[in-house]
Amino acid sequence: MSTPATSPSATPTPKPHEPATPVMAATSTAIVGLQWGDEGKGKIVNLLTDRHDAIVRYNGGANAGHSVVVKGERFALHLIPSGIMHADKPAIVGPGVVIDPEWLLKEVAGLRNRGVSCENLVISDHAHVVMPWHKLEDELREAFLSANSVEPIGTTRRGIGPCYADKAQRSTAIRVADLLRPKVLSQKLATIVPFKNAVLAAIARPGSTFVPYDHRTQLEQFAALGEQLRPFVTGASKLLLDMAHSGKSILFEGANATLLDVDHGTYPFVTSSTCSALGAPAGAGVPFTCVRSILGVMKAYSTRVGGGVMPTELINSDADRAIADGIRQRGREFGTTTGRPRRVGWLDLVAVRYSARLNGVHGLCLMLLDVLAGVDTLMVADRYEVDGSPTNTFVPDAHWLAGARPIYRSFPGFSADITAARTLGELPTQARTYMEFIEQTIGVPIRFVSVGPDRAQTIEC
Ligand code: GDP
Ligand code: IMO
Ligand code: MG
């Protein structure tokens, strides 16, 4: 049978027997946080974008804050993938992400002011949109918990939970594609605005005046935002699938982290997406066979922002708090997104081992090792005591975790400044002993050691 003629602008006819199994490049990699976030994923993603054909963010929203330092210049990214500076690689915001359009456009403008063109930014038309009522509901829910003496989640108040909830509810959700179709957007808002007004008026704080949303104002505002987004919006799923099927290598950027994963984290003190590598294929829209290699990013100690138990938190004595303060200052442990001081603790290998097993990581990236310089004795929890018995099992449940007491091993610290080290041989013996214990306990090799925020401050093992 002859092939029908096509005009150059027409969509090419699909090949009838194209194999459904992609020929994936062996270098496709997922980067995932193994703790409670802020492990330094942004630095590793930026570093590894060099070795991939495209980069895709697959989950979360503007709750994430990824710092990237290139030649001494610091960039804070929230929605835009950390590989955006590589102008020749598509930097894709995948369908699993929830997008606050104003925030995204502010980020683009900020980057352009600093010489990053963002021409390579691609936004999935299927990503969901964070609307003003999502942010208000997020705030009201947290206030409701506090007012009722229940520990709040400690969210970033960026509307993440309510937006993902609406995605699951469907009838009250808006996707990026809807912002580009004013008629559809108007129809959707005609139902959504009165629904949200009724719900929010009912849950608004007593004494506060809730100003109802107006259909026309929202339509005008979001249709205008849609127009500004339009140049970046495409069917990212097809782009990614085509790349996957033509053997291109994709870098999957995880936001938030495994212990914040909605299914497998320390529930209910988690975020609302699948932040572990298990979410990478779904949030990007490619077969799971595309994720060939998984790198787990971990700090040399622990931090957490927001509520929930952190077994190894350094808060029980003045001495503990002084160690935590030192680490917080040296490691700049203040949230990239909210500026909140991060809670600091000893390295918890019970938790990290769980995360590494759940993700099936092939290698570890050990970050912020330099920050530990000057701590006399390094403590590492490799077991918990639960109900009077030792265990190395981690149960991702906040109530269970509240009854877990860490059992520590101690290691001599190191005092030397290691920020200029570029080979393992330049690290103090004490640092290498600490690293060996991490590798042995987790059972996974360390592939990268980070000794400073700049991409150059990295040792590849
Ligand atoms: P992410 O959310 O996982 O991308 O991590 P964040 O960017 O929120 O937080 C990590 C912080 O540590 C940022 O300020 C980074 O610039 C910084 N950082 C990353 N690696 C290192 C390192 O090895 N040493 C030091 N001192 N800082 C680092
Ligand atoms: P990156 O990508 C640290 C935490 C919040 C809160 C909980 C739920 O920078 O590692 P949310 O606003 O998502 O509903 O908040 O999750 N959280 C993070 N903590 N780093 C993050 O992202 C986080 N994303 C969410 O502090 O405790
Ligand atoms: Mg962060």
Beta strand %: 15-25%
How many domains? The number is 2
Hetero groups in this structure are: guanosine-5'-diphosphate, 6-O-phosphoryl inosine monophosphate, magnesium ion
What is the overall pLDDT average? Answer: 93
Largest sheet: 10 strands, mixed
- In whole angstroms, the N-to-C terminal distance is 55 Å
Strand order, largest beta sheet: 9-7-5-2-10-1-11-15-19-20
Number of strands: 20
Computed Rg: 23 Å
Comma- or semicolon-separated keywords:
binds 6-O-phosphoryl inosine monophosphate; alpha/beta; disordered N terminus; four-stranded mixed beta sheet; 19% strand; 13 helices; 20 strands; binds magnesium ion; 461 residues; Adenylosuccinate Synthetase, subunit A, domain 2; binds guanosine-5'-diphosphate; single chain; 2 domains; 32% helix; ten-stranded mixed beta sheet; Adenylosuccinate Synthetase, Chain A, domain 3
Description:
The chain is an alpha/beta fold. It folds into two domains: 29-126 and 235-460, Adenylosuccinate Synthetase, Chain A, domain 3 (Alpha-Beta Complex), CATH 3.90.170; 128-231, Orthogonal Bundle (Adenylosuccinate Synthetase, subunit A, domain 2). Helix content is 32%, strand content 19%. It has helices at 41-49, 101-113, 132-147, 160-169, 176-179, 182-203, 215-229, 236-245, 280-284, 318-330, 349-359, 398-402, 429-442; strands at 29-33, 54-57, 66-70, 73-77, 91-93, 98-99, 121-124, 128-129, 233-234, 250-253, 293-299, 302-304, 343-345, 347-348, 363-367, 377-386, 389-391, 404-412, 446-450, 458-460. The strands form five sheets. Strands 9-7-5-2-10-1-11-15-19-20 form a ten-stranded mixed beta sheet, with helices on both faces. Strands 14, 16, 17 and 18 form a four-stranded mixed beta sheet that branches. Helix 3 crosses helix 4 (160-169) and helix 6 packs across helix 7. The longest helix has 22 residues, at 182-203. It is globular, with a radius of gyration of 23 Å. The N and C termini lie far apart (55 Å). Residues 33, 36-38, 63-66, 153-156, 158, 160-161, 255-257, 260, 271-272, 305-307, 336 line the site of 6-O-phosphoryl inosine monophosphate. Guanosine-5'-diphosphate binds at residues 33, 37-43, 65-67, 69, 331-332, 336, 367-368, 370-371, 450-453.
